[in-house]
Amino acid sequence: MSPPSTLRTERPVDPAEQSINEEVAPTLQQLIRLQIFTPMTLLLALGSNLVTVFAFHPGVGQIQDEYETIWTARKELIGGYLLLMYVLQIGYCLFITISRNPATREMAINGVGLRFCLANLLQAAWSPLFIARQFLVAEILLLVSAFVMLTVWITLLQYPVGYKNPVSWLFVHVPVRMYLLFLVNLAIWQGGLIALRWYKYQGTDPDQRPGKWERDHETHAWIAFGVITGIGLINSFIVFLGKDFAWAACTIFLFVSILVQGEKPVQVVVPLILVASLQIVGLIAAYVWAMYEARRERGQIRLADDDDSDYEPTHRHH
Fold first, then answer.
1. Model confidence, pTM
2. In percent, how much of the chain has pLDDT > 90?
């Protein structure tokens, strides 16, 4: 009697299982890259900001004060805004690491992806350029960052979570909105005015040029009036369409931060107050309209039920 064979017979490969493995492997690799590069670039951006604010003299905040523009905001308020944004980004890093929900992973990979990492890298590079007074290059980085974050926000529209999933909303959607709105409502305009020398220099360096504040101040104020009005209308429209509380809150906060910093011309003060109020109006109107639509749908359903119950056959068997 021959001994039993010790060789194991290989199980035939199931084509369906092989196809699933081929789909899962790249997705897992993308997730791992995201889990590595997201906290790494966040630390670079946060470290760069902290160093250029506190370790250098003059720092970012002091230079912002020296180059005063119509768009200059209260730096303490903006500092608190950015601190909250970075705290939520840290929460995002933890969230994509510990979450086992396939929908969450898909949102992180396809909805956000490595573009958030790119925006953080650009932010990390912006700070040293700004304190080196390379304002034009720094402005270009801000514009690229704004475009990148705009694409992230547009992609995330395909992954609505609402308030039924507050964790995903808080740690994915909110930091994306905060970053995008910081750029498009404040940073690119402030940086652009400085790059174009539309500022009033208030520092002590005699080599710095005085800027174009006094000569063209009235023109700048009317340009700012048009830009603020346009941005405010777009923001309120987005708030209305999406019933977006986070968008409204961030926009109002940023506009108020600009409003309370220094003396602003009336062409800037009036639209800032109006567009900040318009965000509240847009949010309330969105919820009122949603309730009206829900009530109308319930009314149509009730009418349809009544029509069905009123129907009786005309022929009866006796």
1. 0.84
2. 60
